[in-house]
Amino acid sequence: MARCFDCPVMCGADRQNGEYGVCGAGESAFIARAARHYYEEPPISGTRGSGAVFFTGCNMRCVFCQNREISRDGGESPFAFRADADKLADIMLRLQDLGAHNVNLVTPTPHLRLILDAIPKARARGLTVPIVYNTNGYELTDSLRLLRGLVDIYLPDLKYVTPRLSLEYSGRADYFEYASEALAEMQRQVGVLTTDCEGIAERGLIVRHLVLPCAVDETRRVLDHIRAALPPETYISLMSQYTPIPGMKRPLDRRITKAEYDRAVTYAADLGFVNVFIQKRSSAESAFTPAFDGTVE
User: Fold this and answer.
1) Which of 74, 97, 116, 294 gives the lowest tally of CB atoms within 10 Å of its CB?
2) Given phi > 0 = left and psi -120 to 50 = alpha, else beta, which region is 46?
């Protein structure tokens, strides 16, 4: 593949010849951290942690991104290390050896081709834990189809329905157009979440949504779509962890209120959802963002 058209941006970067995509990624991946992570949803983190691999680069431009120190730069940086498919397979096996319940690929889409190569290599060498595809949801269904049979658990965001809001906050007016189709494809591949006898995720879909300040109406639109398009048993993670970045303008200059989050949770219940993960407001702290220091542990 000479040029990259793997995500909705379709920037056409010639990454094999030194160009970087709009996502910031080049031919190789850069990884800012690979370690057990304990702050995902309970079926993902479990008791031994999720084996999170934090890639640099992103195909969106969320103004409130908590991982902005790595999402804006997919190239070389002082806190990330280069990884080809063999190195990524090594990391997957290392995380399994450490006891992680799964391998959790965080912001994987800029590195799709490398991941398609790395997972079979790791499986051939003894990887047995599930693969989690932890994505912002801005995906092409054609790209997702390449992952069929390789990814066990999809963990996508559904951030917005309204184009105006997705353009203003994330620079992508067509976000819902692609994310809605992506979720449908993920559901077709892995179905409703299933867990083992200890409640650890084995296969399926969990849809995340971050409740934003002054945006409960948008949360309702997101939940309406999930209710209409996916099975009623779909697992939803309704997140209260929005943390304002210094210098943010209104209304993103504050955390969400308890009343805002309660309205979101109540609406999910009113729609008949029974598998909803909710968060304490104490989750809205920067301490829950790991140190992106190149650690592998």
Assistant:
1) 97
2) left
What sections of the chain are H helices per DSSP? 42-45, 68-71, 85-97, 112-124, 141-145, 163-170, 175-190, 216-229, 258-270
The pLDDT value recorded for residue 72 is 73
What residue type is 119 in one-letter code?
I
In a domain, 1, yes or no: no
**pLDDT (tens digit per residue) in 97-117:** 999 999 999 999 999 999 999
How many separate domains does the chain show?
1
**Sites in the chain below the pLDDT cut of 50:** none
Which residues constitute the domain of residue 48?
21-296
- What whole-number distance in Å separates Cα of residue 72 and Cα of residue 245? 15
Burial, 161: exposed, middle or buried (Cβ in 10 Å; 0-12, 13-18, 19+)? Answer: buried
User: Which of 153, 148, 135 is CA-nearest to residue 235?
Assistant: 153
Residue 9 lies in a domain: no
Task: Tell me how far CA of residue 20 lies from CA of 54, 55, 83, 117, 249, in angstroms.
Answer: 18, 15, 16, 20, 30
* Separation CA 258–CA 272 (nearest Å): 22
Identify the CA nearest to 119 among candidates 81, 80, 146: 146
Residue among 70, 142, 145 nearest 106 (CA): 70
- Amino acid letter, 70: I
Handedness of CA 93, 99, 101, 107 (dihedral sign): negative
Q: Enumerate helices (H) and strands (E) in the chain, giving the number of each.
A: 9, 11
Q: What CA–CA distance (Å, rounded) separates 11 from 3?
A: 8
User: What CATH number did the domain enclosing 100 receive?
Assistant: 3.20.20.70
Does the global pTM surpass 0.90? yes
Q: Is residue 64 part of a domain?
A: yes
